[in-house]
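Section 5.1 Outputs to date
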Amino acid sequence: MRTTARLFPVLALVAVGCGRATPAVPAAITPSAGTAGEYAPRTDFLAVKLLDGAPKTWPAAGFPPMRSARNPAATPDREIAEDLRKQLGKNILDPSDLNPAAAAQLARLLGSGFGTPAEPRVRVPDWNEVTIAANVRLNPEKGVFANLGAAAAAIKKWKPSAAQATRADWDAANAAKDELKLDDASLARGSVVYRRWCLQCHGPTGAGDGSHAIELAAMPRDYRQGVFKFVTAFAQPDPKQPKKGLGAAGKPRRADLARTIRKGLDGSMMPAFPTLTGAELEDLVSYVIHLSVRGETEYSTIARAMQPTEDDPDFTGGELTWLFDQNLMFVLYNWGLAARSPIPVPPEYTRTDDDRLLSAVRGYKLYNSAEFGCAACHVNYGREPQLKWDVWGGAVQPRNLPIGVFRGGRRGEDLYARLYGGIHPSGMTAFFPTLATGPAYLERPDKIWNIVHFLQALADPYARQQLQNPATLARFKERLRADNDTSLDDLNGVKIDP
């Protein structure tokens, strides 16, 4: 009874139609001069599943595949547009098909939860609001007191197990918000930095559609699905627990975003920003996360509302509010999970250049093995294009490895992280399970380090020449046999260059 009594004032407001109040920005926050307007609702197509097939050709410059599908009459890539439009309603959704009332309600919820570009926030509903959203469904044909009575009864019937699970999600979301530094003050400062340096390419909502996006290169990153390519987080799913929302795969740690901003991405149009102060960098990272959390919450809500399961209700009114609240909590939960799940990078255990070269020979064998299967995607070491779809509905090609340009970084630990956790948005496999299978050597490079050393040698003409020298392999076989190691005996040679 105490819970119902505590909720009575809030229930009364809901029952008379006041809905969720929008909190004011704290007085300590001084918005930027002028106005940045509202965040625009999403109108571009959503890739909600991996697209069927594969791109037949590279998209024309300035015409990303999803944009071509949106405007088939205005693109030179008519064949791509036609292929993608056949997947509308299945793998691709058009937000304009969302019920207008639901779209308007979603816009209000996004405004309440995330503010505006000039006054951004990440607002997790308080526990009373969550309790109401989970249980209360108003009947417009009944009066205020009848709705209050029905609401109180619904809350009393809330199963303790369901309430406890929801409370755990709510606690985790609030903890993640604090850990990710998504306080209003940091976001307000970060918004200023973003609009000064990032808006021109990444756009006001983080869609990668800014006015200065380079037409002749890959589109800037779209933050709105909550996934990034070059991360050092890998949260292994708990088979005993259901996945929450879209899961933690592809979520970066703050340090990943900071590194990308500070150093840029090799081989792309993402520049380095070495002159940002430490404080500016921290605030900017917070704001990028804000845009990503907002975008993923919007994306997940639209996708579920437009593609409900057989057991789902009609997502309008209270049902849409509860869907939105759950998605927001799940998104923050997954960001928090990623933040606590750094990829463990062991020592290299290569004391000499010869140790590293031996590890690279082992890596060559593993690269071409069925266990790793790298050659299936990186055909001829990536020299032959094998176009694929990524999770955004864009065209990607496995890396041309001999060139040695690795966008996520060329350091050993960078490449180790890519192999260990994969590159989720591009569909690159995570190879951490290979570490559980033998053989393993004490104080020697593990299998992933073997591949890393091979990739580094592959990109070095002199090291590549050494690898292919028959005398090198013969020498290593003799060295290993002295230790009763016959792991290279079945390798007849190293063939990389034509």
